[in-house]
Amino acid sequence: MRRIAPILVVFVFCASVTAADIAITYNINTDVNRTPISKYIYGTNSTGNSNYTVVRSGGNRLTAYNWENNWSNAGADWWWENDQYMSSSTTPGKAITNFRDSCVTNKQDSIITLQMAGYVSDAVSGMVDCNIYAAPSYYFKKVVFAKGAPFCSPAGSPDTTDANVYMDEFVNFLVSKYGYAGDPNGVKFYDLDNEPDLWYDTGASPHGTHWEVHPFDPCCAEYKDKSVAISTAVKNVDPNAQMLGPVSYGFGGYLTFQGAPDWSSVQGSYGWFLSYYLDKMRVASNTAGKRLLDALDVHWYPEAQDSAPFTSGNRITNDVRTTAMYNARMQAPRTLWDTSYVGANGENSWINQWYSSYLPIIPKLKSSINTYYPDTNLAITEYSYGAQTHWSGGIATADVLGIFGKYGVYLASYWFDNGSAPYVDAAVKIYTNYDNNKSKFGDTEVYSTMSDKVNSSIYASVFNGYTCEMHMIVINKSIDSNITGTFNITSPRNFYSGRVWRFNNSTSTISETTGISSITGNSFTYTIPATTVCHMVLQAEPPDWDTNGPSGVSDCHVNIWDLKDFTNSWLNSYTFVDFADFARDWGI
């Protein structure tokens, strides 16, 4: 018989341990800070998802795109190779019309990139040795902004045997196919090329993104002059088209146009290149008698890193899976708006280290607009906070979208890495289609604040003209703790219940969760689980005399439609109190 060694069994009883809830107070006022939320902030650079409101055809590939034959060159992204990557069709503009057709099907507006570097690809295949064959060469055709002669007829039948490619003829083709910018299917937005501040760099191999079509350092005055010329040409074809520039790649471009050779000579009193550009476009617009720049367009890829010093950390746009990275990513949106999140109290980044006076960035951009070209909109046509398949990327993006709405960004489009992006899609959908019935966050921002901006964010809205429904996006950024939220609402309406949709760290699928059933005196408490984004929809009782609306149902206002019903019922018995109540509810 084989001896069996004795076995020692130890039983360990572990009680589950959870971090204590975080108590946060949220204050909302539906009659304060009411500002429109642009529907164009929910944009993308990738087609196919109808939850996005606007789609951009942009990026490095577009700078050398030839609309006449669909050839293009991605520059440094792919060996400066001329190819038919965008479309193998010989039908002029096919790469762009395929894109626009998809947007029309999904009822989305479009941003089309115009070519400004000077040359575009010709139908000559192969990798371009830029030391020998950079433009001008037989690989490329010259870009001319204004044809100065009758456009091809029919539109979309350009002469592909001549030496030039005409930008206003391209726009005329799009107008002939889809209508003007103000028409239902017309192209509304045009980007003034893509990241011109990176086209070429004398001092850095491989010499910028587009050495093949712009083999010298771009200058501030050059890009400004080209912006004026192409905007004038486009608006002569489609006066309501909206022009977006300078489509800068990032902070170095904002500052000095990436060390442009002429920056020191044009800088003067301008604090950065963006102010120079705005001012010069304003002057040119006044001379032309029409606005030549409709939106200041920049790209924003945060430089925040997961640890200090910034020289040794991981940038949050990289998909590194650590707690330090998650926290850095979820805090990074504060650099867009939070005046206390700068300097020693701010993010780990070279921008905050050396240029903290330019932060937070949205107020700085808005200040330049207000000073140098008032009423210009703000667009951010590329941005990403990384981790598009991870909950921390979804939380950061949801936070950013709320910031864009609250702080008056006009247009924004997320830049996708290759592959799926379930959490970024969820962040957009929580605003644009949270219940799968195309229900949306409101179109008018109202005052909202939270007592703890490290662990939470809140954004509140209503629909203009309808005050019996209020929407709130509430975010728990804590990895470990639930939030016990106390919500205090100041409003002429008494809210009585609410429904809640959410996504969280376990799934990017948005689903309805426990609702809000106990609201007393417009106050209630609600628990938000860790790392969760909630969309709360609160309902209020309509005023007593709200009997009708233009569509025949209550619109939560006492107005001319209710007066019509009231006056049509004079035969009924009314007392003085009835008239007084009606006047009170109408606000007389």
How far the N terminus sits from the C terminus, by CA atoms, comes to: 102 Å
Annotation field: number of helices: 14
Mean pLDDT: 92
Strand content: 15-25%
By DSSP, the count of extended strands is 24
Describe the global form: globular
In CATH terms, what is the fold-level topology of the domain at 52-61 and 95-109 and 169-303 and 349-383? TIM Barrel
CATH superfamily of the domain at 52-61 and 95-109 and 169-303 and 349-383: Glycosidases
Class derived from helix and strand content: alpha/beta
Q: What is the helix fraction of residues, given as a range?
A: 10-25%
Report the CATH architecture of the domain at 52-61 and 95-109 and 169-303 and 349-383: Alpha-Beta Barrel
Would you identify the regions where 5 or more consecutive residues have pLDDT less than 50? 1-17
Largest sheet composition: 10 strands, mixed
Based on CA atoms alone, the radius of gyration comes out at 28 Å
User: What CATH first level of the domain at 52-61 and 95-109 and 169-303 and 349-383 would be assigned?
Assistant: Alpha Beta
Assembly state: single chain
